[in-house]
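Regression test attached.
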Amino acid sequence: MKNIISFLILFSVIINAQTIKNTPDLFSPGSIKSFADYLFCQHDYLRAIEEYKRYLGDARSDTVEFKIGEAYAKMGYYSEAAKTYSDIQSQSSIGKYARLNYLKSLFQTNDFKLYRSSFNKLNLTEDTTYYREALSLYNFSFLLSAKDLPGEDLFLKPFTGSDREKLSEFYKYKSGLPHKSPVAAAIFSAIIPGAGKFYTEDYADGVVAFIATAALSYIAYTDFRADHKFRAWLFTGLAAGFYAGNIYGSAASAQLFNVKIDFDFVQNLKSYLEKVNYFVPIINFCR
Amino acid sequence: MNRTIIILLLLISTQVFSQTDWVKWGKANYSYAVPGNNNQRDYSLSENDVGDLLLKSFADAYWVFFSDVDGDNCSFSPTCSSFLLMSVRRTNFIQGTLMFFDRFTRDMDIYKKYDHYPRVEDGHYYDPPSLYTLDTKEIKYLPPSEVVNK
């Protein structure tokens, strides 16, 4: 009985043993690409790029180069992504997407001047398949840069449907950003302490500034009346400090308000761009 | 039987966990003082600039006689006294003083702090002088949701 069991174990080991013939070649181009694809879909982009580059040492594939660009872009290395996309042949099947993603990556570097000059260099025409998407980004770049906006009709030309409505909203908002004037804020606070802060919507600060200035002025006034010279001048100095500080602070508050308005607007624009994937069609490599 | 076991267990636990005469009840030494941040301060005086020397002496005196005794009670980072020093060094004496009075007004405002300033990791409201120099290029705006890593 013991012999039979030993025999069966030995037999099964021999039968099921991995032979050299059946061992997959882990370093064949196909295996490297499969592994790289796996890493890419696991969002392990840095290692995926390494493996894709190793694969490209033996073979040539525009799709793999495109994936390298995509991996760079996903990691936030937009300049590297743009360079990788630009190396892809425009005649290849993925070429038009590569051009579009090249422009998208340039856009994501936040160098809108460079984006616009690169767009112009491509000499795209209305017949180009991705012309509308590229022009959408081109026009959108005006919202994110301080440069003057083009005319509304020209600006909205590439957009249709709900995009057009949203972009029209953004355009109107950008045309008249609700900025506050630092000079006006300072003048308001000079007339009534704290009024400038109300103007810049720092209501609580305005109330505190008014109370502090008024209370210290009143104490100084009563001290003068009671002939307490030292205390009177001390509180006069403090009241003057709060008064002048509030005028200054109102101007600073208006500046800060404006920066906040710009910041919030840019955040809105960026989240919208993320939502529409920068007007670029999504290619899903990880189904 | 059960009753006996329960009583026995209660007696044992009372004996085991009861306070012995060796440990006397007494006042616990708790301190409610807010820990000061005087070990992070730079008390050194500048020898190059008379104005800075005077201002720093004033700030040092304030720290030694008030802040260090009072504990870490300023809700802002940098604290108001540090803000004054930084503002004067960054701009000039008059502008720095105006910035300080404005900061002091904001410090007295207890209502808007919660949703107006980003927080530093230690919980203080982040409010650096660079936001108030009247030079928009110096303003690095951070939303209140941000946590600042000093």
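Expected vs. actual: identical. Residues 65 and 87 of chain A are 8 Å apart (CA to CA).
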